[in-house]
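Re: the 552-residue chain
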Amino acid sequence: MSARARTLVFRTLSIAFGLAILALVGASGCGRSNLNDYLVDGADGSVDGSDARPPEAGACNATTCPSGCCDPTGTCQTGASITQCGALGEKCQSCQAEGFQFCDPTRHACGNKVGSCSATDCSGCCEGTTCFAGSDPDECGGGGKTCQHCQSAGLACAGQQCVQQACGPQSCKGCCFGDQCLAGTDQTACGVAGQQCANCAAGSQTCVSGGGIGGTCQGQPTCDPTTCKGCCNGNACVPGTSSTACGIAGQPCADCAASGEACAGGQCLPPPPVCSPKTCPGCCSGNTCLPGNANSSCGLGGNVCVDCASANESCQGQTCVNVPPVCNAQNCPGCCDLGSACQPGFVDSQCGQGGASCEDCLAINPPSRCDVNVTPRTCISQQTQCPSPYPACPANLQTPVPTQELVCTPSDLQNAASACAAGAHSAGCQSFFKFEQSQNAKCATCLGTFDYNFQELTGLFECVAPFVDATCNHDTACIVDCTDSSCAQCPGAGATAQCQNQVRTGQCSGYYQGAQCIAQAFAGPGAFCNPNQYQGNVGSWMAGVGKYYCGQ
């Protein structure tokens, strides 16, 4: 490989590698001078380059998060990530965990690129050659038929069909009285954002309107068991989960911290015992006592747990022995039990994913549950790793190879260049795709394949995919998969951005090194995919790439 080719790929992929920062793109409107700046800051002006939005006031729902989805912590995400996909304040989906290739950033729906997109290759619904899951508000349907846009018609998607929405945050700006949506400004039916109506009169309060849309009960209510599910701090009802204000059922709050105790389930309890040979018959992972019979946490007598799998050994009788486990990440999508049999990994006693050792969440002290809504699956009390371990990249993972479609006019491409100049996730770019979807849906779908900022790498990899071999497309797919999987459990946008930078030089670094394979394509037939050709302007890049793949 020539020195020039190596320089091109390092300019595109390096971030905190210990490599010198090389200039790749010219100064843009925001003063950025190289692609490394895009990887750190993000072309759309965000501080960390991630899609996560800042915390919004109130609960995460359709009112507070209309264009994104709600993650397990109740934080509104943009809903355009492969591990956090969705819209209208619904629960975020992990497209990757559900077997989909990507999250369409325009529709906020999980999908796959297929051939004809019909009943033969799509169990969901079709938009062009994209097969969507068929369970999203505006991409609803099954049997390979054209997707229905339920939300646009004021309906909901249930069972892959458009149905009448029940009263709730998605359908009511006032409050719900049963299944009836009321204005929410009445003294006896007061509320907002699709919550159940409250009777302010019963609590000697007043329903105060919030600008004509719903209302809230205000006044000096009395905190007691009839009005408070948490605990009473004077006349104020608080959740009752704090160590300084703990309680349930409207009882006076207790200060657990004053006596050196912790709040659990609304009660002050002594802190859990320190894991040691005196308290743990298995092995200690930090201050948690584990059974000690799993390949990833093996041991006995309260000693520190050992990862037998890292030495290609297996745990037998709570001791690592030189017998490689039969069940592993290459042949087991679930978890490996004590007999080296692959288990699905969804139950509390056998929890796990990606060929890791099954965890018995019930045997942990204190007992826990299997969280089936995270990737990889793990016990709820064990979700403290950021980044999470990444065993290996699936052998069959490939970056999709886009096909050329004559669907976008020169005017479409010119508008895309202007609207997306500030970044793929800027307000202007999102507005363009929403408009384009209503005017030329096929063009919107085609361009949506490349609707990513440079630091996300996905658009760059898909653009260059036809000009590299299958091995290279596997490596580029592994970069995205490793980064997304490693950082899926990080708490918040800041931690996620830090994790992404960390794994690029850590557990995912091998895949980044392998992606040098795109250098020759960037300098040859796929040169139109190189950001250097567009001075780092996302809009110009999208128009140039769109002209090749989507232009008439």
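The chain has a mean pLDDT of 79.
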